Amino acid sequence: MANPYRELFNAPGSRAFVTAGMIARMPISMTGIGLITMLSQLKGGYALAGAVAATFALATAFCAPQVSRMVDRFGQGRVLPIAAGVGGGALLALLLCTRLQAPHWTLFLFAALAGCMPSMSAMVRARWTELYRGRPQLQTAYALESVLDEVCFIVGPPLSVGLCVAVFPEAGPLAALLMLAIGVGALVAQRATEPPVHPREAHHDVSIIRSLKLQLLVLLMIAMGVIVGVVDVVSVAFAQQQGQPAAASIVLSVYAIGSCLAGIAFGALKLDIPLPRLFMYGGIATAVTTLPLLLASDILGLSLTVFVAGLFFAPTLIVAMALVENIVPAARLTEGLTWLITGLSIGVAIGAASSGWLVDAFGARSGFWVALAAGAVVFAVALQSYGRSAEAVAAD
Question: Which of 18, 193, 215, 332 is deepest in the core (most CB within 10 A)?
């Protein structure tokens, strides 16, 4: 039986841009946690560290779609070096300010400028789309990218923290900076697979986020991100409550493994089900699998429930990415993909903050109520999105 993932790489240059993209996307998972670890070591507390990291995260959420919008207009080769130069230069300045004990306002300034880092996973997905637009291989390519995103967030944070602790406090963010420079440089050098700049019309000067269909997808991504943020925070608190703090890493790994396995399997399938219907099924399954989280009473039970929850995360994300390719014009694809990734990041931050407040006030398991609320949003958006798709088909 043919391996659909191996067949993907029959396209010339595909191995090279996937490798470069993997290196270039690592900083997004390493920088925030690296800043927290670095500043908490050097400043002796978490208040400043958390505030600076939050500034970086919010700036990234704002800037990444704007950078991708410029990429759609002028091309990856022209925009990525500038965006990476500004973001990477600001991150380097932040590290220098930390080392030189500069005023705190400089840390916030350069953390905000560091948010200009481009969304590299969107850049790689755009290259896959150009290679396999309208063909079954595109779903497999999106599945591969979702799995690589998971791997990035499994490997990146512990690597960054480990470097900060074992080498010197700035080592984690510095490694992220080097990966950004190497990865972006290697990707931009690959001109043969760079998506061409598609012709633009007058309405393209308005942000694509004004599209109601895209807004629904972004809302769903935010809700899914909230679930991820809740699982991250509550798993740590739950493990500590059980007297097994190290077990939190097991729970989080199980969640990521479930998502990775499901993404790999889904990408290998050749389904005849329309994308809007698949999206509805994925959203409903994602919502339903948040319910058992409240029933977990020990580490084993929590591991099993998050494993099941993870099984539907990657497939739903894959279908959402495929829907973007159908919804937005070719000239706006990178921006559309980036809005989904940005929504996911915003959701993770919301989930972590809100569940953390509940955990402090009412105990570890109470944080899962935030996941249930997010699941309800996922459920509603999936049905609404499918209903609109059905109306559009009926109108045609």
Answer: 332
